[in-house]
Amino acid sequence: MGPKLEQRPSVQADSESPNPEGVPDYLLQYGAIHSTEQQRAYEQDFETDYAEYRILHARVAAASQRFMDLGAEIKRVQQGTPEHKVLEEKIVQEYKKFRKRNPGYREEKRRCEYLHQKLSHIKGLILEFEEKNRGS
């Protein structure tokens, strides 16, 4: 399919597990920024995770689009007709092929959603710091 993602066990193993209170790790790891050095470190972390996010997002979006297209196609056909039955079978077969070719899809989608939230959090902190220090 697309380029293989390099596995980063140290990041993936502990970064997606919420703590016992259910708070995502990045909320604990990335607090308010108090210095330009801290800002640079957050920006570097953002860029690293953003590269992975872009690859995952492209894969997830392509899969979603394919099934949305098939869903739209079947909606245009009257239910109960032979054409509708053919499309139903086509969707089932596409799904089976997809699952076989992409056994890690659910994990990729979950990781993509996690990274989206983490990146949004980091970006918000960076923007907040920049806004506070605009006049400095």
From TrEMBL:
GO MF terms here are: cis-regulatory region sequence-specific DNA binding; translation elongation factor activity
Q: Which InterPro entries is this protein grouped with?
A: ELL/occludin (IPR031176), Occludin_ELL (IPR010844)
One Pfam family from the UniProt entry?
Occludin_ELL
List UniProt keywords, sorted A-Z: Elongation factor, Protein biosynthesis
What are the annotated GO cellular component locations? transcription elongation factor complex
What is one Gene Ontology biological process annotated in the Swiss-Prot or TrEMBL record? snRNA transcription by RNA polymerase II
The OCEL domain is annotated at: 24-134
Please list the residue ranges that the record marks as compositionally biased, kind Polar residues. 9-18
* Organism domain of life: Eukaryota
Annotated region (Disordered) at 1-25
Q: Which family does it belong to?
A: Belongs to the ELL/occludin family.
Name this polypeptide is given? RNA polymerase II elongation factor ELL3 (Predicted)
